[in-house]
From TrEMBL:
CDD domains: Chorismate_synthase. It is an enzyme of class 4 (lyase). Pathway: Metabolic intermediate biosynthesis; chorismate biosynthesis; chorismate from D-erythrose 4-phosphate and phosphoenolpyruvate: step 7/7. Reduced FMN (FMNH(2)). The gene is aroC. Its cofactor is FMNH2. This reaction introduces a second double bond into the aromatic ring system. This is Chorismate synthase. Its EC number is 4.2.3.5. It catalyses: 5-O-(1-carboxyvinyl)-3-phosphoshikimate = chorismate + phosphate.
Length: 378
């Protein structure tokens, strides 16, 4: 089974990720991973740390001469801001961060020992993993695209069917959105929020396209693809809600307005990832009964504002138990653009995992044979 774990503290020596269960024979271009690393570092609203770091991945194992070996892949990202042993203790927990619950659970007096690991810096390792997953998926015509739908209540429901066009717009946008009408307002809001010493959250959307019908399964609760994708996104720091397709709005509509009617068109040539069945709408967001139905998977994640505030909230000192304001550490005003890259990576990984479950995993040739054989059975 494909899985990964990460290790590392925000100001420790490095972050590492270990991926197991990845097939042999896949060409991995480090430059492709590093492009994603750079994208995660960007976006308006980031704090000073991103000026210090230049996140680059170093491959420690599992890849030889750019080709995966089928053995564990270990990826490392060095921290330029390595100073964990010199950093002061944190005894004024920040509301909204892991500080308080963490020290109580682990019987510690210094929240530094919690926040160093809880920090979203860890997502750099996840993005490296996601980039490797995306390389695998691209061999089967599957793409994953994430972007910002809204920040601080400024929201756009603009949908671009052409992902190439959307990608070009996103690349030019300092807040990774695809609607130029809201971009200016978002930029202004981030700047005003920074001046006020506050922070902002937002909404990101991830679209997975080109994937075949049949990933995930209705047969068991923990095999359902929608549950797995939601879990993967909820694991991202600061994500508080996830929805698929029409999302929470389905609760307010009639069944006839929600479900996507089924049509059939004989595939013209070659094999179709849906066997020729198609929909005119995609309210389900590409998953029915916990199984991918061949339509694009559309999933949104809702991010809370970052809890580290220049104008800190009220807290209590861990040692004296006296009321005091929370610690302020250098932080981001808004990291929603970065979160869109992280969410994209988590979706890529979870889809790659479901894909390898379905099509076998030891070598890429075996996976390709199984994939082709499956499609020819429709
Ligand atoms: C982050 C690095 C961190 C923060 C941010 C994410 O750097 P530092 O703490 O040294 O300024 O910018 O972390 C948080 C917002 C958080 O709450 O921990 C990164 O690499 O993404």
């Amino acid at each position: 089974m494909l899985y990964f774990k990460t290790a590392g503290e925000s100001h420790g020596k490095c972050l590492v990720a270990m991926i197991e269960g990845f097939p042999s024979g896949v060409f991995i271009d480090e430059a492709v991973i590093n492009k994603e690393m750079k994208r995660r570092q960007g976006g308006l609203g980031r704090g000073g740390r991103m000026q210090i770091e230049e996140d680059r991945v170093e491959i420690l194992s599992g890849i030889r001469k750019n080709i995966t070996l089928g053995s564990p892949i270990c990826l490392m990202i060095k921290n330029s801001d390595y100073k964990i042993d010199e950093l002061p203790a944190v005894t004024r927990p920040r509301p909204g961060h892991a500080d308080l619950a963490g020290v109580l659970k682990y019987n510690l007096k210094d929240a530094r020992n919690i926040l160093e690991r809880a920090s979203a810096r860890e997502t750099a390792a996840r993005v490296a993993v996601g980039a490797v997953a995306k390389i695998l998926l691209s061999l089967f015509g599957i793409g994953i695209f994430g972007y910002v739908k809204g920040i601080g209540g400024i929201h756009s429901d603009k949908f671009l069917k052409d992902i190439d066009v959307a990608e070009k717009i996103r690349e030019k946008s300092s807040v990774y959105c695809i609607d130029q009408d809201i971009e200016g307002k978002i930029i202004e809001k981030i700047q005003q929020t920074a001046e006020k010493g506050d922070s902002l959250g937002g909404v990101v959307e991830v679209i997975a396209y080109g994937l075949p019908v049949g990933l995930g399964s209705h047969t068991q609760w923990d095999l359902r693809l929608d549950a797995r994708l939601a879990g993967a996104l909820m694991s991202v720091q600061a994500i508080k809600g996830v929805e698929l397709g029409l999302g929470c709005n389905v609760a307010n509509r009639f069944g006839s307005e929600v479900h996507d009617e089924i049509f059939y068109e004989k595939p013209k040539q070659g094999k179709s990832v849906t066997g020729g069945f198609k929909r005119m709408t995609n309210n389900a967001g590409g998953i029915e009964g916990g199984i991918s139905n061949g339509e694009p998977i559309i999933v949104r994640a809702y991010m809370k504002p970052i809890p580290t505030l220049k104008k800190p909230l009220r807290s209590v000192d861990l040692l004296t138990k006296e009321p005091i304001t929370a610690t302020y550490e250098r932080s981001d005003v808004c990291a929603v653009p970065a979160a869109s890259v992280v969410c994209e990576s988590m979706i890529a990984f979870e889809i790659a995992r479901a894909f390898l479950e379905k099509f076998g995993k030891d070598s890429i040739d075996e996976v390709k044979r199984n994939f082709e054989g499956y499609l020819s059975g429709f």
